[in-house]
Amino acid sequence: MVNKDYIFNAKFNAFTGKNGIGKTNMLDAIFYLCTGKSYFNSNDVQLIHNEDPYFLLKASFIKDSLPGDEILCALVRGRKKVIKKNNIPYERIVDHYGEYPAIMIAPNDLELLMGGSEERRKWMDATIAMYDRQYLYHLMRYDKALQQRNAELKNMFQENRNNKEVLEIYNQILIPLAQAIFEKRKEFIAEFIPVFLALYKEISGKEEPVGISYVSQLQDHPMAYLLENKFRQDLIMQRTSNGTHKDDLDFSIFSNPIKKYGSQGQQKSFIFSLKLAQYKYSISKVAVAPILLLDDVCERLDESRLRNLMRILAQQEFGQIFISDTSSERILNTIPFEGEKVNIFELSEH
Amino acid sequence: MNSKIVEGAVAQFSKLPGIGKKTALRLVLHLLKVDEQNVYDFSKALLKLKTDLHFCSVCHNISDETICSICKDTGRNHEMVCIVEDLRDVIAIENTNQFRGVYHVLGGLISPVDGIGPEDLNIESLFVRFQRNEIKELIFALAATMEGDTTTFYITRRLNGSDIKASTIARGISVGGELEYADEITLGRSILGRVPYKL
């Protein structure tokens, strides 16, 4: 088993070293301690190193220069994962989410632009849930009720039954939840857009018209109407075809979908702006500035964009930053931070 | 294994909830060691569960006779009915010594995902009890889950228009619990469902 301890700088930290040495893994470990899950892998067992029997992460957080909480995350093969705050285990892991906000910027973020609508909903939900526990609760309840409604549709279809008594109950549960989720998302996007636009301009250094718009079936009709009117269709498909679980975000450049019309450079600027805006927006909502984790950014940005990004990161409001790169030299050359504000950890095999 | 008889017994034991192959073998080996009379008594007790045990024809609680001891008890308030999911809940509530009404055991909760609809539960017999005007007040003591809520919702909906008093058990801070350790949802519900303080 490998065991490592690190003391980090309050402002800027870099992990450097060869490919495959474990830089991303370090960032993910920090993300895990903050949020209770991996950014890259939803299967916790796969996070255990090779044949080791368990993994264990421990962190002492520091808030406003004062000792904060001790967080411990552990998973032993074949058991349930445990997260403890100051030695007291959480009854529900989800309660840890939002305690220590963290935002990761990583190569697979491009999926947000290129992938299906689920990616964008997940991103939007993770952002809102970071500061709004009630929203997270609504989402979980909505998912549960949706599953039950779909199962009931399936049962009705297979039994050729027309009695809607039970289905009605799930409608009654879903209607207020969908409405609450819709309102929250709408409010979030409206507040988020100006933050995003300002950052896009700063990173790309260009005046390109980019846009984000929130798309929901609830914009045209209330949830009650959708469930009632699409009942026949739902019954045949044996699932609920309308609701906030179909919401999406439209990302555009010059009024065209960025997925198809954006150049690679524009797409990268878009995604970096989106994630940094998520960071800035979160600061306005939570008491602690989130921890920012940047995986392999230097490789992915050209020099002018990289310099613009670093200039933004140097602003006062950004909290603690962790970055990974293959070259210590490049980090030292591009970062606008002074000596005592930087710690570089050169990772090696031993 | 070189005995088909032992193998068969192990297979039967390992069908029980929480019993794996190893535990099953341990139990079987234990039974091989004890007196024949003990094993006979053991199997008789098991058989009696199926041959002699009844479910109360009124409330569906388990009973040695057609009507259970709780439903027979004239000292209890038969107009006040507590609705529970299963037998374990009856035992839990009886242990509190706080309830002097009678019960109605549903035998499960509505959950389409698990293929359980209202017709699979003891709901019709509850309505028979209503129609006989036996019930004045209902107390829902079901799990604080979506399945529990759905079942409460379903029954109260069908009661709509009647003058039966219906309530659910309180949900919130546990006795001796500290507020700071309660999750937001529970605490929020406790505030919404606050109770008047009387001196």
Task: Give a short overview.
Chain A has helices spanning 23-35, 111-114, 117-131, 133-159, 165-204, 223-229, 231-237, 258-261, 264-285, 297-300, 303-313, 328-334, and strands spanning 12-16, 54-63, 66-76, 82-85, 88-89, 102-105, 210-215, 248-253, 256-257, 291-295, 321-325, 342-346.
Q: What report would you give on this structure?
A:
The complex is a heterodimer of chains A (350) and B (199). Chain A has 350 residues and is of the alpha/beta class. Chain A folds into 2 domains: 1-101 and 295-350, Rossmann fold (3-Layer(aba) Sandwich); 110-287, Up-down Bundle (Glutathione S-transferase Yfyf (Class Pi), Chain A, domain 2), CATH 1.20.1050.90. Chain A has 12 helices and 12 strands. Chain A has a 5-stranded parallel β-sheet, with helices on both faces. Chain A has a 4-stranded antiparallel β-sheet with strand order 2-3-4-5, covered by helices on one side. A 3-stranded antiparallel β-sheet of chain A has the order 7-8-9. In chain A, a hairpin with a 2-residue loop joins strand 8 (248-253) and strand 9. In chain A, helix 3 (117-131) packs across helix 4 (133-159) and helix 4 packs across helix 7 (231-237). Chain B has 199 residues and is an alpha/beta fold. Chain B has 2 domains: 4-51, Helicase, Ruva Protein, domain 3 (Orthogonal Bundle), CATH 1.10.8.420; 77-168, Dna Topoisomerase Vi A Subunit, Chain: A, domain 2. Chain B contains 8 helices and 6 strands. Chain B has helices at 4-13, 21-33, 36-51, 69-72, 87-96, 124-131, 146-159, 184-192, and strands spanning 54-55, 62-63, 77-84, 101-105, 137-140, 165-168. In chain B, the strands form 2 sheets. A 4-stranded parallel β-sheet of chain B has the order 4-3-5-6. In chain B, strands 1-2 form a two-stranded antiparallel sheet. In chain B, helix 5 links the parallel strand 3 (77-84) and strand 4. In chain B, helix 1 packs across helix 2. The longest helix of chain B is centred in the first third of the chain and has 16 residues, at 36-51. Chain B is globular. The mean pLDDT of chain B is 91. Chain A binds chain B through residues 91-92, 95, 133-134, 137, 141, 144-145, 147-149, 151-152, 154-155, 165-166, 169-170, 172-173, and chain B through 110-113, 115, 117-118, 146, 149-150, 153-154, 157-158, 183-185, 188.
